[in-house]
Amino acid sequence: MRFKHSLLVLAIAGALSACGGSSDSSTPDNNTGGDNTGGDNTGSTTTVVTEGVITGFGSVYVNGQRYGSDNAAIAVGNSPAADEAQLRVGMVVTVAASASNNGEDPEAEQITYEESLQGPVAFIDREAEQIEVLGQTVIYDDLTEFEETDLDTLTVGDFVEISGYVNENSDFYATLVELEDEETDIKLKGNVANLDTDATTFTLGDLTINYSTAQFEDMSVEDLADGLFVKVEGETFDSETMTLTADEIENKEQSDIDEDTDEVTIAGIVKNYDEEAGTFSVNQYDFVVSDSTEFEDGTADTLANGIIVKVEAVLDGEQLVAEEVEFKARDARSKVEGQVTDIDAEAMTFVLNDTTFTVTSETQYEDESDLDERRFTFDNIEVNDWLKVVSRQDDEGNAIALKVKRIEEDERDGEVKGRVSAVSTEGMTVANANVTFDENTEFEDDDGTISLEDFIALVESLNAVIVEVEGNYVDGSLLATEVEVENVSGEGDDDDNGRPDNTSKAEFKGAVESIEGDAVFVNGKELRFAEDAELELNDEEVDVVTFIEALDVGTVIEIEGVWVEESYILVKEAEVENEDDDGEE
Asked: Reduced to 3 states, what is the DSSP secondary structure of residue 86?
């Protein structure tokens, strides 16, 4: 078995050699940049390669490590001579760096970013927290960054760029979703499947690739084979047949790691796990587990396909031996916003809504306030700052900040997520935030709308209930317009990405595929309308007959409903915004 790495390493290793750097077996702490100098090692360097999400700037933070970027060669997409200003929080990048053993941060020699997927949005499923682009399922969560758009404004037909991790079934976990106004090229990565050399086609997920006129890079047409990891680009896309005519196909398999590479740190989704052999893959890198491999936030038994991990490894011969595997469960259990009341620089904590949040080296930062400070980190947080914080709870009960955004007071979303306490008919506390109810507050569980009394009974009868609240701020409290039960056990009924396993509620936006009598089909799902369904057509309430008569194939419809015996969706609410006479929505 041969263990692979990118061509980038070969280029960097040559550059470091030309600069006179030498390899040293001692490695600095990736999280702290700690001083590992020993005796005469002051002038020695190590070669470092890392791949993961950008979490902040000043210079560039990736996988919990700050990399100096002043002298780095930066490539973004098809631009080989980009600059740091083109990088975004949420981008998955590959960094090749040199680290001196004097306690200083590594210096990036090269930073490379390529989008994972780019194309039009075909379907948005808010309940499942996923969108579909080019037949590929893209999963998002509270930590996904949205640039130039958000979940409220994103709509079917929007052209987006996705950065993230590719799963073995060609699904994507999105770390960044960015709205593209000028790009028209369709791009995606994945493993070749169903290769048909007679028809000159293969598939990536549900997308058929016609490669009859494609140009090939780092490969020839004869190299095409099922399982090969490739990047495909093209402009001609047939949405009815889900076929992309490829203009260019690039081999994205890894080449051999340069023997002078000292450290490799890769974050991504586990694939090809072989428990007996102790081997697995992450982002096309192959790793082997040894008796000395350490596991953080989990054990060896936690390792499985589909799990997000960060792996620190060293090269032993041709094998990447995992020294540490850290499980990166995206189990964001709390989402709050409020004003900072205290900061402890030594403990790396801040207080918001009477909750003490601890930041780590991997906390994600963004400044959306009027200050718009690109190099916003914990050091820039001040008392009275307004923040949005996504967090989880560690084994000791500490609130660990996963994502921190600075905002203006009037930019608060009115959204809170967390564990319910002190519930009454007047309101409740969610993640230490005060939430109030009025006669217009709606309550929902997995099966649809419930009464306030049923909600209170649910909270009081169970050990823990996680809810997501939407509302408006009135007199310092959040007046809830909608309260949705996210989890009713508090015992971790989440899937691997931290999302509740809800199966009966449906909430999505998509284009009508066909209309058969009273049934409407969207994205392969059959919709039937309840007699008392709340239906809006261009902001006007209409009855079921009028609503269905206004639909055509291609009409974008947004619905809320419930699954009935897993065979069709009974629509409780639906909305259509047709274009007006001026062609504007």
From this structure: helix
Q: Shortest CA distance to 135 belongs to which of 226, 236, 203, 57?
A: 203
pLDDT, tens digit, 9 for 90 and up, residues 385-399: 999 999 998 888 899
Residue 17 binned pLDDT confidence (cut-offs 50, 70, 90)? very low
Residue-wise burial string across 558-577, b where 16 or more C-beta atoms lie within 10 A, e elsewhere: bbbbbbeeeebbebbebbbe
User: β-strands 207-210, 201-204: how paired?
Assistant: antiparallel
Above 80 in pLDDT, residue 129? Answer: yes
Q: What is the pTM of this model?
A: 0.85
Q: How confident is the model at residue 579 (pLDDT cuts 50, 70, 90)?
A: low
Check: CB of residue 52 under 8 Å from CB of residue 61: no
Rg (CA), the chain: 25
Q: Distance (Å, rounded) from C-alpha 319 to C-alpha 314? A: 8
Q: Give the model's pLDDT for residue 48.
A: 87
Structure tokens at 444: 């929902």
Sorting pLDDT into bands at 50, 70 and 90, what band is 502? very low
CB atoms within 10 A of CB 144: 21
Is the CB of residue 479 less than 8 Å from the CB of residue 472?
yes
> Which segments within 305-430 are labelled E, that is strand?
308-316, 319-327, 334-344, 349-352, 355-358, 364-367, 386-393, 399-407, 415-421, 427-430
pLDDT at 494 over 70: no
- What pLDDT was estimated at residue 330? 62
Q: What is the DSSP string of 399-414?
A: EEEEEEEEE-GGG---
CA 366 from chain centre, in angstroms, equals: 15
H/E element holding 7? Answer: helix 7-18
Closest CA to 336 of 302, 370, 383, 387: 387
| Angle in degrees, CA 479, 139, 183, rounded to 5 | 100
Question: Each residue of 296-347: pLDDT tens digit?
Answer: 988 999 999 999 999 999 988 888 999 999 998 666 679 999 999 999 999 9
Select, from the ranges 82-91, 249-258, 322-331, the one with the highest average predicted confidence (pLDDT): 82-91
Could you tell me the CA-to-CA distances from 55 to 52, 129, 181, 256, 355 in Å, in that order? 9, 22, 24, 28, 23
Nearest residue to 313 via CA among 53, 49, 10, 67: 49
Unique residue bearing structure tokens 């040559």:
14
CA–CA dist 217, 231 (Å, integer) = 10
Strands 399-407 and 355-358: parallel
| Category of 378 on φ-ψ map: left (φ > 0), alpha (ψ -120 to 50) or beta | alpha
Tokens describing residue 489? 């056990």
pLDDT of amino acid 267: 95
